[in-house]
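Continuing the series of single-chain predictions for the mutant panel. This is the parent chain; the variants come on the following pages.
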Amino acid sequence: MDPRQAKNKVGNSADRAAQQAADHPVVLILARSGFVVLGVLHILIGWIAIRIATGSGTEEASNSGALQAIAEAPGGQVMLWVAAVALAALGLWRLSQLFTGEELKDKAKGAVMAVVYFALALTTSTFARGGSSSDGDTASDVTATVLAQPAGMALVILAGAIVLGVGLFSIYRGATRSFKKDLEARAGAGNTGSAIVAAGVAGYVARGIAFAILGGLIIWGAWTNDPEKASGLDMALRTLGEQPAGAIALIVVGVGLALYGLYSIARARYIRM
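Parent structure:
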């Protein structure tokens, strides 16, 4: 057999194995549950943001803050173990797009989101074991380490620009309702409830605003050589709240993040997998 044919045969076998693993009913059920977990986290982050805006909360408005809130609830650690498994399954499903995605952008998106979900699953397992972490401390430590390297400023500015771009694209998705195709692919065009769409619009715009601010802070932190400015989502939301009429803006964004959480829970049912 020609070496290239043998290589292609092995590659095709690996692709089929990856697809079979990702398509296993248990993996798909858990992956859909992963969207529910993301929804719950966004609802909690939104609630924390509202509490910060009203001066009644000191929690961290981030995934870590939301996970800490779950850990402190009755049966929280058990729920966190279930959430960690669901997020890992969601990461596995995203990873399968490297082998099954027809377009390069699908493969790239699958790879990036797989890393995000696996990292979140790892963080969730840390809280499930009784530990804790801070998104803000992690972000500032990583930024400081990168800034200390040759061309570190350029790399951090590039990272900030990417986060800013993600935020602007999220706003675009919400404003144009382009996210509807993810839902209608399974539900059937036009069958997606108007309430779900409205939650998606508000949610994508709110997330976009938060990530756009975060991207700007990362860039500013690199430019001023101040890693503390790049301290994650919590810092971005608190920065918004410190602006003129910031409390109102933060409440609006907090509500939007909570609505994105409701959209994500609905997405668990409707997204094509």
